[in-house]
Structure formats: structure tokens, C-alpha cells
Amino acid sequence: MERRGDLLELKWSDTEERLQGSLHPAIPREGEPFTLSLHVGNFQGAEFDGPLTITFQQPGSPALVTRTLTREGVNWHTELTPDAPGLWDLEVRYRNTHLKVLTARIPVSDQPLPRGIGWALIITAAGTALILGVRGVVRRIRASSTGPGEVSAPPAAVASSAAPAQDARPAAADTAPPASEPTPVPDSDMSTAPPADPSSGQ
């Protein structure tokens, strides 16, 4: 077998005949038909006129497609549709001078995803990668802001360390001397005169 563009060429020969064929497309897909074309040529004697018998199945599978082909022009044509991906055996049988049995192993690919589902998977993967990248950048920024060897104190520790500073300010105010104190007046300077009589007009 040899691939040429979108065709898979099949070639076989012995001293009496040669078989040539092609599959289109070169790699069949699950659930999609492909075209098989065959031609048998003689090196001697009369031209082979058929028929050809083909079987198509997966190795070990009980499902088997068998067809007897008649000649159409110079070739034999048929369409086959594999129902599962994997390797399939294509067997060709014909009798000219004696029975010939030829087998080819055909790879069948998976059914492609619908275009909408394919784009959805691509967008989801891109969004996930973007989110992971942003998280990594944020972690690096946080790590660089704290610096190596620096550990930020928890809020409880900050509150407890600030409390003594607030308590120290009133203590400093208590030790300071008062701004002014009233001067005691001696007893001798105090007036002992009786209060004026309001009726005298003075």
C-alpha cells in the first residue's frame, strides 16, 4: 500500500497476474463511505473478466461484509462504510489460473468532532490556561512584596503591640507638673471688715 495525495494505492503481483487498486479517501472515517476500485491484469493469456469477491471486517469481530463484484469497464468498484475506528482487513479473492487470496490492513480514523464542539473545547482550554497564568502572577507579586525572610504579623499581634503605646501616653501626662497652681493667701491679708449695709447707699 502507498499513499498518493487523497488516494491509497494497492499493488500486488506474481508471475501470472498483477492486482492494482485504490481507496478514496486515503484514510477512511468511521461512519463515512469510501470507494474501492480494483483492476486485475494478466501477463499472459486472456484478460481476466471476473468476478471478484471481497470481505471487509475488523480482526476478531463477528461482523463481516462480503460482496461479489462484477466488472464495470476495466475495473471493479464498490463502496464500503466502516462502523468503528481501528484497523480493518480487506480481503480480495478471485480465480483465474488458480485461486488467489490477497489481504490488506486498512486504518479507519475516528469521526471528527462537530465544528461547534471543537471551538468550545479550544475556548475552554484557553480560558483555563489564562486563569492559571493570572493566579501564578498574583502569587509572585505577593511573594515579592513581602520580601525574602519577612513575615507579615497577624492582625492580633499588631493590635497587642499597639496597645502599650496607647497606654503609655496618659502615664507621661500624669508625671508632668501642672501648668499653674493657685497661690495660697495668708490669713493676715484676709479682710475682716463686716459687709456693707445695703441701706446706707454705699
TrEMBL record:
Keyword Membrane: yes
Biased composition (Low complexity): 145-178
Chain spans, region Disordered: 145-202
Record has Membrane as a keyword: yes
Keywords: Membrane, Transmembrane, Transmembrane helix
Transmembrane segments: 117-138
Highest taxon above the source species: Bacteria
Name this protein carries in UniProt: YtkA-like domain-containing protein
Species: Pyxidicoccus parkwayensis
